[in-house]
What does this fold into?
Amino acid sequence: MNFESFISLGIVLILLGMAMLILGTLFAALSSGTGEKDNVHAGGVIFLGPIPLVFGSDKNMAFIAAGLGLLLMFFYFLLLKK
It folds into this structure.
């Protein structure tokens, strides 16, 4: 793959992520008026270079985020290797 296709892929992924954030916020706002109590779990990964820092609201989300972080770190090293 050439450099321009990576730029295009990055732009598409950023736009897809923004669309998912907007839709998720919209769905959460519309469903919050139903009187149901939602049990929300969250987790995430922050990369400092190739090292993932994982956080989560509970143990299961932290494990899921850790797995995704390790997968992304693997692809980082795979793409870095020429």
